[in-house]
Amino acid sequence: MPQYMKEPNNPMPKEWLASEHSLQKIASYKPFNFVDGEGVRCSLYVSGCLFNCPGCYNVVAQNFNYGHEYTQELEDQIIEDLSQSYVQGLTLLGGEPFLNTQVCLKLLKRIRKEFGDTKDVWSWTGYKWDELMQESDDKLEMLSYVDILIDGRFLEAKKDLTLQFRGSSNQNIIDVKKSLAQDKVVIWDKLVK
Ligand code: SF4
């Protein structure tokens, strides 16, 4: 099939479960960056994704066995880095964070315990918002700890490098708390483009 006709995979609700796929591995950790969301952020790239988007920005991290194990030492380092006053929050990327809920939930619960809502959480996902709403309990629990979600597969046909924090125009920057409260997608109120 020609490259331009390829499409990402489209799972049925609850078809992919972290419990069946995640090896709880980390592709990389990048503290104190300015590119993965608003403000200064610490970014955790988890390993493993099944969407297989043509043109994926991080192909190596599609492999669930890529990288290294998530350790208590790394978690402690992330918490220490986040405690710096100039750090706005944590960003989860991948790979697919929602197929690594074991790692992400453990970390997010600790962040809320130690920092309350003084640090925000951004997460990327290949799932669309409406798909996530039909997903497994672990994914929905994880979503409840996220402030901003960038949703949807990367689609080469809709690629646009001028967009804020997104690679293609089908993706949205979603205010999670407002969306859950209003039971509809509410776009981030700081969206410029
Ligand atoms: S959802 Fe993201 S990480 Fe997964 S294949 Fe698509 S672009 Fe790559």
UniProtKB/TrEMBL annotation:
Activation of anaerobic ribonucleoside-triphosphate reductase under anaerobic conditions by generation of an organic free radical, using S-adenosylmethionine and reduced flavodoxin as cosubstrates to produce 5'-deoxy-adenosine. Its cofactor is [4Fe-4S] cluster. InterPro entries: Aldolase_TIM, NrdG, Organic_radical-activating, rSAM, rSAM_sf. The keyword Ubl conjugation does not apply. The lineage of its organism: Bacteria, Bacillati, Bacillota, Bacilli, Lactobacillales. It comes from the Bacteria. One of its GO terms (molecular function) is metal ion binding. Keywords: 4Fe-4S, Iron, Iron-sulfur, Metal-binding, Oxidoreductase, S-adenosyl-L-methionine. Gene3D superfamilies: Aldolase class I. This is Anaerobic ribonucleoside-triphosphate reductase-activating protein. Belongs to the organic radical-activating enzymes family. Its EC number is 1.97.1.-.
